[in-house]
Amino acid sequence: MSLTTQINVPRLNKTLTVPTGLFINNEFVPSVDSKELIHAINPATEEVIASVVAASSKDIDVAVAAARQAFKTTWGKNVTGFERSRLINKLADLIERDAQDLAELEALNNGKPVKIARDFDIGDSIQCLRYYAGWADKIIGQTLEVDNKAKLAFTRHDPIGVCGQMAWKVAPALAVGCTIVMKPSELTPLTALKLSELVMEAGFPAGVVNTVPSLGPIGGAALSSHPDVDKVAFTGSTITGRKIMEAAAKSNLKKVSLELGGKSPHLIFESADLEQAASWAALGICYNSGQDCTAGSRVYVQDIIYDKFLAVLVSKVKEQVIGDGLDEKSGGGPVVSKGQYDRVWGYIESGKQEGAIAVLGGEKRNSKGYFVDPTSGSKFIFGPVLSVGVFKSEEEAISLANDTSYGLGAGLHSILSTECSPYYADAALHIADDANQCMRVSSALEAGTVWVNQYNILNNNVPFGGKKQSGIGRELGSYALEEYTSVKAIHWNFGEKLEWPL
Question: Which DSSP symbol is given to 457?
């Protein structure tokens, strides 16, 4: 089969060229032994837009060998931080140059609106690469006093080695000198393959980044259990995360970082700016059509404002336009796959059976595409799926929020300006109390990230990760560098003479 394909997009009056082979050693190659294909589907039309090579376990072996060779020779400790920084910045420049094409490809394969993919996801990826390019020549250790007359010790933060990445988290790994074998989602492999072209164009040595689309039970399992992979980073379900940890333990005890699922709570206190709180709550569940690991899927509202807040929230969700991602008017697109579509509608039907009365949406479209329109009800709002509950006190709100085995994200809205409050004639007297409440509640919430008076906003210099069953390790910020390095202590004796025998 040809290792490239052209995707005609009549709506845009253009053609996108996409590689379809496995990217190993800076080449797009066929599988060693597999004839299986991964069919990338446009969730807005349910049509196959391209088919790519599905890697076998032997292909994973080849990719890992390429990454190991590069780590030993042209990357790892063999290139300066200045050079790593230059190449990472070059990659960021190329992604910025091609941002529109990449966003359109995302819209076709993922369903996400072009403007969201371009301005948020791709834009954030560019900034993330530039942030870690800045770190590449600043990987430092410590000098430690042992005996000033005879000895000293110092530490080195060495790159951990070959990393199996099951999400696009390459920036900190490249910054410290690791090499990468990337397994993109089998549902959305096209953008990762297109980005691999840019890795080659940027000038990275062969084998530093390898991209091997594969089915999870094959590629993911092979990377997790591979004896020559030093670290695995995974984003996905807790169930799969458990399997990865088990495989890592049974193979070579490789390092593992996991960003797993969540049922993130969002608390709305009586002093909140209801318009703003409703907007952030709508963003929390509607962004990426609810397909977000930190989606604020549980909103709890203080009883005194429950009815008014619910009305505002319904009006906000109703404004969200769910349509084809290639339409600039769309704020959300279809869910990514038929499996996800069936799962979401299962939740909606379950909510109806439990007594939810739909006042907005709740009916399937009579057209192609895995679309789930925002649906609201007296007990639930599905955007795609949001449950709304009530609490009376701060203590009850914290208890409800923490009553889960997950702990990825959480949000709260409390403090407001004096002109915003419809409930307090002496609102100014309550601002200090509300600020204290923000500190108390954010401290008490059991989550790796807590947003106060906002939701779902990440910054490249701020760490992100979960507690409890929502994951291990941290992404972003300087903390992420620790996930890709090992600390070596060197003891240097320059003066002590050992007397022997003891």
Answer: -
CATH code for the domain defined by 265-452: 3.40.309.10
Token look-up 């701020």 returns 462
* Residue 97 phi, psi (nearest 5): -60, -40
Tell me which H or E stretch contains 275.
Answer: helix 274-286
Entry pTM: 0.92
Of 298, 301, 297, 299, which is closest to residue 269 (Cα–Cα)?
301
Domain ranges of the chain: 4-260+470-487, 265-452
The pair of three-digit structure tokens given for residue 308, joined into one six-digit string = 């008014």
**Residues 73-118 pLDDT 10s:** 999 999 999 999 999 999 999 999 999 999 999 999 999 999 999 9
Q: Which of 259, 270, 482, 483 is catalytic?
A: 259
Q: Is 53 helix (H, G, I), strand (E, B) or coil?
A: strand
Pairing of strands 179-182, 162-165: parallel
Give CA separation, 364 vs 269, 343, 346, in Å. 34, 13, 12
Question: Is 4-260+470-487 a CATH 3.40.50.300 domain?
Answer: no
| DSSP track, 144-213 | EEEETTTEEEEEEEEE--EEEESSS-HHHHHHHT-EEEE---TTS-HHHHHHHHHHHHHTPPTTSEEE--
Active site annotation includes 259: yes
